[in-house]
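Incident log, structure service

09:12 report received: a user says their structure output differs between two submissions of the same chain.
09:20 pulled the input from the user's history:
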Amino acid sequence: MYFSKPNQGAFMNLNQELQELLTKIIDFVPHLITALVVFAISLFVSNLTAKWVLRKSKTRVKNIETSKLLSTITRWTILVLGIVIALEQVNFNVTGFVAGLGVAGFTIGFALQDIAKNFVSGILLVIRQPFQVGDAVELSGFEGTVTDITLRDTVVQTWDGEVVILPNMSVYSNPI
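09:34 re-ran on a clean worker, output below:
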């Protein structure tokens, strides 16, 4: 019976590769922990700041929809910045990520063009306040009382009791 000696060179190469892998993992762990801490802090700060913005804007802005919008924009801005910083900690290609977000934003914006127009018109209506809930108005050919103004549409109850929901884009672009 013949037993061959194990190839010590192969074991040494495997041992060396395992040591290199272990070294890389040990070097990566602090970056990963830092990234997780940055993400957790950004999550906490974004929620805290969004609540603060909502509370403060409710006292200054008459429309609750605008307050919610400001709060949401604040939350997502801080959170995205935190995610970008966290990804940089683990040597992720942030440039490609941000470019991808830009392309996705452009695509979504193009697809939701009419909704975005109504939304922006709603923000402008809330800011400029050409009329308020309870005002008698003529909007887009409908006469009646404004019963609700949201960021997407304006609701008018006509003099005969009919409820008409008008997209803010048409309300903002037509004479009031």
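09:41 both user submissions now match this output. Likely a transient worker issue. Closing.
09:42 reviewer note: The beta strands are 136-139, 142-149, 153-158, 163-167. The chain is about 70% helix and 15% strand.
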